[in-house]
Amino acid sequence: xxxxxxxxxxxxxxVIALAGLATxxxxxxxxxxxxxxxxxxxxxxxxxxxxxxxxAEGVAMAESGGYQYAVDHDSNGTVDRGLWQINSVHGxxxxxxxxxxxxxxxxxxxxxxxxxxxxxxxxxxYRLHCGA
Length: 132
Fold this sequence. Notes:
globular, mainly alpha, 2 domains, Lysozyme, 5 helices, 52% helix, single chain, 6% strand
């Protein structure tokens, strides 16, 4: 009987632990996906211009789907990371940290004046997102 009781307790502990992991995963998923409005606020928070806010939102959404941990391994061996898919040639700017990634987008785009480094801008795909 004590052995059965131990097995039941161990089973309950496992169920509780799995429920905790599922809750943590759901919380992480909700905080790592950004809406257009959240992308805009992030752009502005790093000093991005209001006049380029919609384009910044559209480019980020087209590049990453608003997913903070988006990654693309390019055929040339470089890696694009984060919301704005900053390429690893930019060193520490190529980051999953949303603030660093947004600052990189601001710098690389010359404060929103030059979006040509982003394929989704050049193809016009950004226009399908966030009212850009």
